[in-house]
Amino acid sequence: MIIVYQNNQETSFEKVKRCMPVKFYDDLNCLHKYATQHGWEVFFHDTNTYMVSWRKNKQRINVYLSKMTFVTAIDHPRQGKTQLYRRQIRDEDLIEKIFKNPRVHTTSGYKLKKNRR
Q: How far apart are CA 8 and CA 6, in angstroms?
């Protein structure tokens, strides 16, 4: 699937894969497998930070491939807009859980939320 993003450039998983170093191909294939399985679409990538971003509805998952850090940006029902950071996620079961439910709790992360004023 092709998604239009910044500057009317097109992106797809294959384009993202071509832009990233070969050492990240296995991780990208694993991420793509679970993302598409749970309805996520790749919509942005940054070759400087080796980050790939997926979206589904109003939710977003950014994955920084160099450290396999997951950042999920969601609108929490009670807490408002929040971001969950999870570092060193390499377990495929956990990767699938994150794409299935971005709010899933893990033992490897922390949360940021906007100040309410």
A: 5
